[in-house]
Amino acid sequence: YNILALIGGFSFGDHISAGKVLATKFKYKLKKKLQNFVKKDKLILGICNGFQTLVKLGLLPAIKDYFIQEATLTENKCEHFYDGWVRLKINKSSKSVFTKKMDIIELPVRHGEGRIVFKNKKILEKLKRNDQIVLQYLDQNDNITTEYPYNPNGSIEGIAGICDKTGRILGLMPHPEAYINYYTHPNWRTRMKKKEVGDGYYIFKNCIDYFKEM
């Protein structure tokens, strides 16, 4: 297979911390297989709990190297689980395979531990310098924000998703798989222009196109 996708779903009940147990199992039972998978130019996608797992496994952001934890995803600043829709800005300068030709999108979020925290300021600085920040939360005026509820967790720099330096590993808190069909948006009948598909569809289409173009 060519794509490894880790989905949301509170693996192991989020005991210890979200994604920690699953990340530990991967690290000590599947590390060599994952290393080989990454070396073969294949794709890894982590959504919500999958993103939490990739960060705690050390596959993201992987500034120094893979399997070294440099960040974590912790409790939302609002101090509660949040379920709603958000607007997101895509960084067009990013190498992310998953977000090519995308700009501003809307996706649902459903999490209680989505605030990204870095080991030190240098990690964040390098992340920005490398254009590894892929998705950022927007307010009602389409400005990048840390303010609730537009940014449901309070992540610094409005970070909603990041990639590794190759652009082949992506983790994000919003749920693209929950907006494949245009009609699943709560406002599709009122304020929205009709679309052929939901915004999340293109993230998966880009995965397929990546291998078609190889």
What share of the residues lie within helices?
10-25%
Biggest pleated-sheet summary: 7 strands, mixed
Integer count of domains: 1
Q: What string gives the helices and strands in order?
A: EHHEHEEEEHEEEH
| Order of strands in the sheet with most strands | 1-2-9-8-7-4-5
Distance between the termini: 15 Å
pLDDT below 50 for ≥5 consecutive residues: which ranges?
none
CATH fold naming: Rossmann fold
- The class by helix and strand makeup works out as alpha+beta
Mean pLDDT: 95
Pfam families: GATase_5
GO molecular function: ATP binding; hydrolase activity; phosphoribosylformylglycinamidine synthase activity
InterPro entries: Class_I_gatase-like, PRibForGlyAmidine_synth_PurQ
Keywords: ATP-binding, Cytoplasm, Glutamine amidotransferase, Hydrolase, Ligase, Nucleotide-binding, Purine biosynthesis
Describe the 3D structure.
This protein is an alpha+beta fold and 214 residues long. The protein has one domain: Class I glutamine amidotransferase (GATase) domain (Rossmann fold, 3-Layer(aba) Sandwich). It contains five helices and nine strands; from the N terminus they run E-H-H-E-H-E-E-E-E-H-E-E-E-H. Strands 1-2-9-8-7-4-5 form a seven-stranded mixed β-sheet. Helix 1 (20-29) packs across helix 3 (49-57). The longest helix has 12 residues, at 201-212. The radius of gyration is 16 Å and the shape is globular. 42% of the residues are buried. The model has no long low-confidence stretch (mean pLDDT 95). This is Phosphoribosylformylglycinamidine synthase subunit PurQ. Pfam families: GATase_5.
